[in-house]
Every structure is written in C-alpha cells, then in structure tokens.
Amino acid sequence: NAGVTQTPKFQVLKTGQSMTLQCAQDMNHEYMSWYRQDPGMGLRLIHYSVGAGITDQGEVPNGYNVSRSTTEDFPLRLLSAAPSQTSVYFCASSYSGQREAFFGQGTRLTVV
Amino acid sequence: KQEVTQIPAALSVPEGENLVLNCSFTDSAIYNLQWFRQDPGKGLTSLLLIQSSQREQTSGRLNASLDKSSGRSTLYIAASQPGDSATYLCAPGLGGSQGNLIFGKGTKLSVKP
Q: Which helix (H) or strand (E) holds A96?
C-alpha cells in the first residue's frame, strides 16, 4: 500500500516556466487537496477536490490550476512560475471530511 | 476566518519527561481535529484524530484532548524519548465535511538524551 505518492521530490524552475506536480493515492479516497508550506507559516490550502470532476479553491489558489479526472490522481499545475511560489508542496487525501488525512512526502520547489 | 495558535513554538526537554503541547483555535465550528508529526524534510504523519463529539483520543504514549467550546486541544506525551523529537502540528477540520484542515505553525520539540 503506497498511500499518497508525490513526484517529483525536488524541482528547480526558471521564472515563467510551467510544470505539473503529480499526486496519486491508492486508498480510493474521495477527498484530495494541495497545501504549501513556507518557513514561519502554517500549511496553507491551495486547491481541493471532493471527488472526480469536482474541484474548488482554497486559501491561496492564484497561479495554480487543478483538475481531477480520476479518483486516484490530483495534479497541481503551475501556469507561469514566480519566485513567490518557491515552497514545499504537500498533497493530502482522506476517505471523507470526517476521516483521517494522509499526506505525501512533499515536493520541494525552487523558482529562480 | 479560523486561526490556529500553538504554544510553545519550541520546547526542549530531557528524556523521560511528560509534556503538554497546546493548540487553540478561534472558530469552534469544527468537524474534527488532527495532530500530526513532521520530521525535518519529511511529510506529515497523522498521530491522532478527534471527532468534534469526542473529548479525547489515546494512542500509546500520546493522549489528545479536545474542548471544542473553548477552542482548545492539548497533546500529552508521556515519558518522552529522543525519537519524539519533531515538529508537532495541530489542524482543526473545517465544518461542511470538505475535509480541509487549517494548520497552526507547530511546536518544535527536542528531547535530549
């Protein structure tokens, strides 16, 4: 049971480049979400999904896109990377809003 | 807007001590509350989940309590060990069953041998 898998683990981008952070879970969880973690701040919600085909914005959605075509996958797209998007990104999933959340190991992104 | 505060921000204790980590939140309309552990450069590991209808949960040397009406939760760690050194995060779950968590900044715990 792999749980929540994020790829890549590390990435360096140049300003203006685009990329997709991958997140996959094998627990048949309906709920998936993306958070970013910055020094001195708590984790902040970027986007979330309550099921395939359904997504919504969190606290800090600007500059990011998501889609949920399958239950298993929830990719996060950076449209035009900016230095302010340098952060550690975490994907999470849970069976429902009332159940335990499981997190991936994170993607450390640096935008230069 | 839900705000979560964790006190203390950092804590250093000798091995064997019992300790309490505190978490307070401003909006009591929560579905549940989770405590996580984060090791340096790693992801979050769920320690305990307390539903809004519960008062406490226990797992091994860990006990978490929840006082929803006063907006407080505590994580009690008994007989601390060096392997407990990590950052501990508190995260109330928002109402509406969306499953979204609001995180505090964490308490960085160091247990000295």
A: none
B110 contacts: CB under 8 Å, gap ≥ 6: B10, B11, B12, B13, B85
Structure tokens at B109: 């715990």
Q: Which residues of B touch A96 (CB under 8 A)?
A: 97, 99
Q: Identify the band that residue A99 occupies on the pLDDT scale cut at 50, 70 and 90.
A: confident
Query: Each residue of A7-50: pLDDT tens digit?
Result: 999 999 999 999 999 999 999 999 999 999 998 888 999 999 99
> Which residue in B has a C-alpha nearest to residue A40's C-alpha?
B105
Cβ distance A98 to B31 less than 8 Å, yes or no, reads: yes
Q: Which of A31, A33, A98 sits opposite B51 (nearest CB)?
A: A98
